[in-house]
Structure to design on (139 residues):
């Protein structure tokens, strides 16, 4: 490995670490707002796995307003009475998951990925996955 290469890899590592720190700093303490949301008003009953909505993943790509004002999503896990007719009609998830802004509705399993029987909820925060645990001080 040349010295230049090694330096390049080091820089990239540093960037990843810095990004993790900055993102972690913005998030602050674990907050339900940033967790994945399991939506299961109908899925279980229809023999589908519950839908999982990764809030954080979307929230870093779009402003709150896009979904909670323009698309009319209420601020409540499971509070929107979403079904597939509405999605195919371009409402809710279907406003983007239409093969243009994001992959289309045919990808059932990408949304219906929950463990069967999981009730509607704001699932555990994703903070733990984003921020590496701090090393413990040794005596
Ligand atoms: C972009 C995300 C997304 C995709 C892709 C998706 N769904 Fe859904 N689906 C949802 C959400 C959200 C709900 C509401 C979940 C609930 O309340 O249980 C839902 C609800 C359902 C329901 C129960 C309500 C109803 O409309 O009968 C069925 C059945 C269903 N989906 C089947 C499917 C099938 C089959 C596919 C693939 C052809 C699919 N879904 C693809 C997000 C998606
Ligand atoms: C891509 C769309 C999208 C964006 C962008 C988005 N949200 Fe959401 N949000 C949702 C969906 C979908 C739900 C769950 C609704 C449901 O289950 O029917 C939700 C639920 C919520 C909830 C309720 C969770 C709970 O505790 O019950 C809050 C609060 C919330 N969002 C805040 C925000 C804030 C603040 C932002 C911007 C920083 C934001 N959202 C950006 C789609 C979005
Ligand atoms: C405002 C637009 C928008 C809305 C509304 C939206 N999505 Fe998405 N979603 C996206 C985009 C963009 C991606 C990234 C697509 C890609 O990587 O090609 C994405 C990706 C995803 C992913 C994959 C996340 C990953 O880790 O790769 C899931 C799961 C998902 N959406 C579920 C949903 C569900 C369920 C809903 C409705 C409750 C929804 N989305 C509503 C735009 C949206």
């Amino acid at each position: 490995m040349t010295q230049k290469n090694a330096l390049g890899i080091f820089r990239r590592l540093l960037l990843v670490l810095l990004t993790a720190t900055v993102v972690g700093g913005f998030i602050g303490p674990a907050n339900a707002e940033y967790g994945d949301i399991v939506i299961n008003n109908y899925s279980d009953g229809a023999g589908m796995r519950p839908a999982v909505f990764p809030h954080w993943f979307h929230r870093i790509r779009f402003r709150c307003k896009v979904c909670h004002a323009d698309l009319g999503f209420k601020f409540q896990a499971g509070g929107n009475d979403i079904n597939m007719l509405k999605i195919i009609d371009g409402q809710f998830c279907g406003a983007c998951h239409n093969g243009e802004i994001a992959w289309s509705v045919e990808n059932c399993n990408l949304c219906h990925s929950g463990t069967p029987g999981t009730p509607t909820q704001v699932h555990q925060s994703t903070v733990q996955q984003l921020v590496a645990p701090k090393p413990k001080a040794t005596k």
